[in-house]
């Protein structure tokens, strides 16, 4: 059974800023009680969109679920609130640390300012942050990925399968991280077929992060690109990307998913046949590995990078229609090896 508790946002005037937390272990007592103090507990603080985004956050949850099953830890999940500030994230991480969770993992670069403030106050607790290497400390593990490398492979595939010689990229929010996806994808397309046009679009600009959470924005952007004859669209937009996937599927064109193998995401089952492949990030294993390192008494810290050479990023092959395209698969495999061998250097900015 799941139990729902609520962590109050200390020092925040409005009760609306409280954080909903789901504890994934079986227990009859509150997660903050002294009876749980000796239990192995860990926590995930989700990024924009929360669990159920069929993408980034769900991949992190899969790592937590694996740790619960294989390591016997009790997992706590903390969802973000709409329009929250860095101060809200500080309160969330503080509450999770005080409850005895170790490690406490911030899912996404948005947690960097909060971890910078909270981690020094809890030196015996490991804080993990995914997709950020800017904030460092002896008890901070920076889990980062070479997204541009996986995106390059997606560009190769897109250039090989397009019939209109027009493909699209949809980024959720125009940040340095998402620009890595765009840069790799565009380079992969152009290196494969320089005559293919790439239409790039971002849904929102910081500090507006709706581009990661509102499917209608992704749907409208995809429709606009379809109207411009794009027949392959790669969306790196979190939950908003599901709207793009819907639009592309209904148009009978190809989607390229992101972060998780979106062909296998239950929430996208109605559109799976349109998902040619997905650029995957091994967020699941990265979360599990961090939790395991703490349980083993050898907590990870510093930069932990996952690239093509360690299968930390890659291109999913779940859709049988993709694997049947032997020339496409061969081109992708060739590009992958050349990146690993250093023959291709993938750009990190468009």
Overview of this structure, please?
The protein is built from 10 helices and 14 strands. By secondary structure, it is of the alpha/beta class. It folds into 2 domains: 3-145 and 284-308, Rossmann fold; 147-281 and 319-340, Rossmann fold, CATH 3.40.50.2300. An 8-stranded mixed beta sheet has the order 1-2-4-3-5-6-7-13, sandwiched between helices. Strands 9-8-10-11-12-14 form a 6-stranded mixed beta sheet, with helices on both faces. α7 links the parallel β10 and β11 (254-259). α2 packs across α3 (112-118), α4 runs parallel beside α5 and α6 packs across α7. The longest helix has 17 residues, at 176-192. The radius of gyration is 20 Å and the shape is globular.
Tell me briefly what this model is.
It is built from ten helices and 14 strands. It is an alpha/beta fold and 350 residues long. It starts with a strand and ends in a 10-residue tail after the last helix.
């Amino acid at each position: 059974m799941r139990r729902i508790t609520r962590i109050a946002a200390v020092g925040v005037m409005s009760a609306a800023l409280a954080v909903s937390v789901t504890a994934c272990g079986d227990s009859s007592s509150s997660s903050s009680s002294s009876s749980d103090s000796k239990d192995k507990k860990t926590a995930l603080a989700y990024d924009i969109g929360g669990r159920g985004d069929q993408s980034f956050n769900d991949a992190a949850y899969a790592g937590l679920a694996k740790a619960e099953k294989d390591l016997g830890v009790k997992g706590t999940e903390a969802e973000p609130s709409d329009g929250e500030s860095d101060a809200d994230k500080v309160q969330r991480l503080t509450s999770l640390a005080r409850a005895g969770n170790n490690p406490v993992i911030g899912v996404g670069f948005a947690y960097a300012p909060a971890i910078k403030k909270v981690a020094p106050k809890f030196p015996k607790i490991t804080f993990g942050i995914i997709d950020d290497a800017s904030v460092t400390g002896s008890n901070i593990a920076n889990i980062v990925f070479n997204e541009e490398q996986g995106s390059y492979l997606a560009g190769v595939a897109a250039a090989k399968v397009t019939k209109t010689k027009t493909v699209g990229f949809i980024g959720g929010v125009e940040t340095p991280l998402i620009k890595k996806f765009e840069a790799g994808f565009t380079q992969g397309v152009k290196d494969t077929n320089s005559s293919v046009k790439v239409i790039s679009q971002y849904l929102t600009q910081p500090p507006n992060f709706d581009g990661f959470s509102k499917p209608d924005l992704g749907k409208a952007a995809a429709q606009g690109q379809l109207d411009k004859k794009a027949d392959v669209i790669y969306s790196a937009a979190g939950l908003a990307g599901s709207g793009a996937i819907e639009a592309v599927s209904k148009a009978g064109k190809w989607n390229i998913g992101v972060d998780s193998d979106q062909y296998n995401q239950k929430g996208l089952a109605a559109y799976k046949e349109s998902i040619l492949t997905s650029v995957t990030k091994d967020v699941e294993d990265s979360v599990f590995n961090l939790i395991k390192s703490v349980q083993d008494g050898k907590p990870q810290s510093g930069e932990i990078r996952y690239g093509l050479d360690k299968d930390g990023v890659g291109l999913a092959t779940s859709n049988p229609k993709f694997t049947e395209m032997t020339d496409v698969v061969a081109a992708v495999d060739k590009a992958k090896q050349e990146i690993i061998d250093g023959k291709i250097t993938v750009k990190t900015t468009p």
